[in-house]
Design goal:
This protein has a single domain (28-246), classed as Ribosomal Protein S5, domain 2 (2-Layer Sandwich), CATH 3.30.230.70. The protein has 247 residues and is an alpha+beta fold. It has helices spanning 95-111, 135-149, 176-181, 208-245; strands spanning 28-32, 40-46, 49-60, 73-80, 120-130, 158-166, 169-172, 184-191, 197-200, 203-204. Bound molecules: uridine-5'-diphosphate (UDP). Uridine-5'-diphosphate binds at residues 85-86, 89, 96, 131-136, 176, 179, 187.
Length: 247
């Protein structure tokens, strides 16, 4: 979060730098089955973010000491390509990517019927090809679709979204400048049907009222994002049905 007070991110009419209103999402596109060798995959474009997700498993957890006799272990790995950001990102894991991998693993764990696969692991590789703020929630949204596309039983899809505070106003889905120079950023992961929160982090400060306003905005947007997820999965099954019909 920057403090540059001279940068105006929202104009008098409530229009943001990229032309959006306060409660408007950036454009989102999701495609499934983009990688042949993965058990499930998804590609998401969310504003300027471009992220590929590959899912493998369930398969026997290795090394053995990572096995859980009661359930599958979710091993999500979030990685940013060196070329995904303005200033070259040093390849390999860092504190940020380890943290994001952990919170995404935990969020997916709540959605997947892990108890059906004791001693197994499910690998979820999240590769950020182009980053433009909100990569963790875009990655989580796509990961959830990729897991479903792998045919792994799930209780619910996880929808990721952020809201935050920019120029003193609560806004949905922060863009890059808003993330850099805004006052708060609240990424959340929500189970689509139950509304249960499975990921919540916060950078900056919000009052209780602002937090409630931001959360309400996220819940409202989650329905729209979930429709895009479901449409991507429906597209997969329509294509399969056509293949079968043509046999
Ligand atoms: N970013 C960057 N270099 C880095 C990490 C992040 O340029 O090493 C940018 C990138 O565009 C990212 C944004 O900063 O999307 C916000 O990062 P944050 O840690 O808030 O995570 P995100 O919003 O992507 O989940």
């Amino acid at each position: 979060m920057g403090t540059a007070s001279d940068i105006k991110l929202i104009d008098e009419k409530g229009i943001r730098l990229d032309g959006r209103s306060l409660s408007e999402l950036r454009p989102i596109k999701i495609e499934t089955d983009v990688l042949e060798r993965a058990d499930g995959s998804a590609y998401i474009e969310w504003g300027g973010n471009k992220i590929m997700v590959a899912v493998y498993g369930p398969r026997e957890a290795y090394p053995k000491h990572t096995q859980d006799i009661d359930k599958a272990v979710i091993k999500a790995r979030y990685n940013m390509a060196a070329f995904s950001v303005d200033e070259r990102k040093r390849p390999g894991p860092d504190r940020r990517s380890v943290e994001i991998s952990k919170v995404i693993s935990e969020a997916l764990q709540c959605a997947i019927m892990v108890e059906q696969f004791p001693r197994a692991q499910i690998d979820v590789y999240i590769e950020v090809l182009q980053a433009d703020a909100g990569t963790r929630i875009a990655g989580l949204t796509a990961a959830s679709v990729a897991v479903a596309a792998a045919g792994i039983p799930m209780r619910d899809l996880v929808v990721g979204c952020t809201a935050g505070k920019v120029d003193g106003k609560i806004v949905l889905d922060l863009g890059k400048e808003e993330d850099n120079f805004g006052q708060a950023d609240l990424p959340m992961g929500i189970l689509a049907k139950s509304g249960k929160i499975v990921l919540m982090q916060m950078d900056g400060d919000l009052t209780t009222e602002e937090f409630d306003e931001a959360t309400a905005m996220i819940y409202d947007a989650a329905k729209r994002i979930n429709d895009i997820q479901r449409e991507a999965l429906a597209g997969k099954y329509r294509a399969l049905a056509m293949e079968r019909g043509g046999e």
